[in-house]
Amino acid sequence: MMARVHSPGPLSADDIFATGMRDQWHAVCPSDWVERGAIKRLERLGEQWVVYRQSDGRVRILADRCPHRGAPLSQGMHLGDRIACQYHGVQVDGDGTVLSVPGMPGCNLEGKKLVRSLPTQEVGGAILAWFGTDPDAEPAPLQLPDPLVDEGVSAFLCYAEWNAPWRFAVENLLDPMHGAFLHHESHSMAGGATSARFRIRETDRGFFFEKTDQRGMNFDWVELCRTGADWVDLEIPYPATAGPGGPFGIVGMATPIGATSCAVFFWRYRRVSGWERDVWRFLYRTNLEERHWAVLEQDRVMLEAMAYDADQAENLYQHDLGVIRLRRMYRAQAEEQATALADA
User: Which of 87, 149, 205, 344 is least crowded, fewest Cβ atoms below 10 Å from its Cβ?
Assistant: First the structure.
């Protein structure tokens, strides 16, 4: 029998829209989830993956399927730079190449790349991976969010998993007006008007969705950025009681787990340095973090309570222009990727 890399059947546009865009980078999990010598099984974009950290510290991600009989590699043994399947001992390295078949040394599986592997990067305490439609193609360049690589910015990663479609999580961020209602009793979004006008403003990396009649009072703007990964940047004003430093910002990403669940990554940041940086980090851990989690919980409870097809029975208005733009963009991209997969 001819050896081959397992590949699922072609995905439809609806499949991609439900489980996430391909041919881009996605945040996978916090870095500290995968310790040196550890093996972890994760579902992302509707598929099962095994994540492990080699003895040299490098993170590797493989399809969780042994090329021999399809057993889960995540139940195998960590051997430094490779995983040995528990079922028959077949050893696979981080590139997906079979290094050894102990039951039959020298058999034709050895030396062949038979397991799909994902390119990875680590930034800001998170592991990112490239999910390509062509497993053999090189990943696109990744331009990381400025707050995650700027040494003048201090950030904290907040990670959670929600039982809601990934698109609900992204649409929530492209809906600034919900801050004045859902979060109106929070420490940072109590001010500002409960009515507004919005506009879309194009940028060289995506677009802003912003209020035209208010700034610096509430959740007044958000920028969607498409730089190899999709992420949002937003800013919420802070009262003086929040300590020194610039405005409070959030970089957010939402990665599909399956069609009805997602992993959300929020980096809370401020531009601070010197002693102000130390004060900000102390205040965050001792006072502000709990308040931020309370706001995040409000979002989670609301989105998890919505029906999976809630977006099929809506009556939208001007405040929803950002959501409409987002959906059209992702729907068009899903159709393009489905067509390319079918042609391939």
Answer: 344
